[in-house]
Specification:
Layout (H helix, E strand, L loop, with lengths): L2 H9 L18 E3 L5 E3 L26 H17 L4 E6 L2 E6 L26 E6 L5 H14 L6 E7 L4 H11 L4 E6 L28 H4 L6 E5 L3 E3 L3 H5 L8 E6 L10 H4 L2 H4 L11 E2 L3 E5 H7 L1 H15 L7 H8 L4 E3 L27 E3 L6 H6 L23 E3 L1
Parallel strand pairs: 5-6, 5-8, 6-7, 10-13
Antiparallel strand pairs: 1-2, 3-4, 4-15, 8-12, 9-14, 10-11, 10-12
């Protein structure tokens, strides 16, 4: 057994009835052959469709095709190619029904258990504001992150989620979230990608160059005035502790709080052109504390101080330098380091067990760092839902799987 299998037991979420979270069982209309293939059951053995769905066509030794059978097979193959892995709707073909993919995102995810506040939750000042980005490609990760937060906090009804999206179908994304979390207090904000697109420089990974990856720079400009403090989280995290402990950290006058990693090679985040330019690298001289790496996927922000200090403009200025001189490689992280390294409130490392997605090039498996864990973060190229679907998971991916709300499905053929 992998060591992480023991952790999976500890972190395994439970329903409101006290039982463990369960993946959907296969449809009762489905059975499996000896090879493990899903096959529709035949309720009446003497009334089988033209090519007998209880035996896959490629397994039959002899078979007679008529025109309707050939057409049905052709349409079935097209359905599999175009729509595997989505919720299904129906289309009639002759004496049979082909259930094919639906475009509704809401049907792709299961509804989460209901969560209520415990007696210790304050009725007036207990609100916790959490900001995340919302994107169709990462929706599955977002769902898991939200479920993990609600699962492990004593005050789930006090959570307010703010989602920034560039997706034209933002209503569809929000509808999917509301379908899985009917009681969730969520607000969706449209982030205009043109605001940052001309400021982005090419990095080592295409995903890091997307405008939404820079939305965290504009949080304070996007959130309403009543949000004075916000906890920002990436979509590839799972929280296994009460998020209130992180959200309420004492900022001690700082704008940001995050775990720091002073053992990391800080200089590697910038190019030789940066370190050879005395005026540019001079920005790190005279700071209150040594400059250490921190990951921007988990941050607590004083929104009021950010606005007052004009920090959006300061980050943008370094992005402009990058366009001219190529002083760093990694997307939106380095400009944050240039502005805030040595000036943040350091919090316990347990709040960002990062790097579980491997490096930014190959995404190779990595193990857990020693010590207690409150938040797991699959930063890097590898994402747990993709590796699990590809049947090439890393051991740490099994810690993410219990929070997955994705409704596994595939097109099937049934009698009409």
């Amino acid at each position: 057994m992998y060591p992480s299998a023991l952790l999976t037991f500890a972190f395994f979420p439970h329903h409101s009835d006290g039982g463990p979270a369960r993946l959907l069982n296969p449809s009762p209309t489905i059975s499996k052959d000896q090879g493990g293939h899903h096959l529709p059951r035949c309720p009446l053995p003497r009334r089988q469709p033209p090519f007998g769905p209880c035996v896959p066509p490629f397994r039959r030794q002899t078979m007679s095709f008529n025109n309707s059978g050939i057409v049905a097979i052709a349409i079935f193959i097209i359905v599999i190619i175009l729509g595997a892995g989505h919720a299904v709707t129906g289309a009639r073909v002759g004496a049979m029904m082909i259930r094919q993919p639906s475009s509704s995102l809401a049907h792709m995810f299961r509804e989460a258990p209901a969560f209520w506040n415990g007696p210790e939750c304050a009725a007036d000042d207990g609100r916790v504001d959490i900001a995340m980005t919302l994107d169709a490609n990462y929706l599955r990760g977002t769902m898991a992150a939200v479920l993990s937060i609600l699962q492990h906090t004593a005050c789930p009804e006090s959570m307010v989620f703010h989602f920034l999206t560039t997706d034209a179908d933002d209503r569809g994304l929000a509808a999917a979230l509301r379908a899985s979390f009917p009681s969730l207090d969520l607000r969706v904000y449209r982030f205009d990608p043109s605001r940052v697109r001309d400021r982005i420089s090419r990095s080592v990974r295409q995903e890091l160059d997307q405008p939404l990856n820079y939305a965290r720079v504009y949080l304070a400009d996007t959130l309403p005035a009543d949000v004075r403090r916000v906890t920002y989280l990436d979509s590839d995290v799972v929280v296994v502790d009460d998020i209130r402990a992180l959200a309420s950290v004492d900022l001690a006058g700082h704008v940001l709080a995050a775990p720091e990693y002073c053992h990391a090679n800080f200089s590697s985040y910038f190019t030789d052109a940066f370190w050879s330019h005395l005026e540019l690298n001079g920005t790190f001289r005279g700071r209150r504390r040594p400059c250490c790496y921190f990951n921007t996927g988990v941050m607590v922000m004083d929104v009021v101080k950010w606005r007052a200090g004009g920090y959006t403009r300061r980050v943008e200025e370094w992005m402009a330098v990058q366009k001219r001189r190529r002083i760093y490689h990694l997307g939106s992280l380095p400009p944050f380091l240039l502005v805030f390294a040595g000036h943040i409130r350091a919090v316990d490392h347990r709040w960002n067990q990062h790097g579980l997605g491997g490096d930014n090039v190959e995404g190779r498996c990595r193990g857990l760092h020693p010590g207690p864990i409150s938040l797991l973060h699959w930063s890097g190229k590898g994402k747990p839902w993709l590796r699990l679907d590809a049947r090439r998971p890393c051991s740490v991916d099994y810690l993410w799987a219990p929070y997955d709300l994705y409704r596994y499905s595939s097109p099937v053929i049934e009698e009409w």
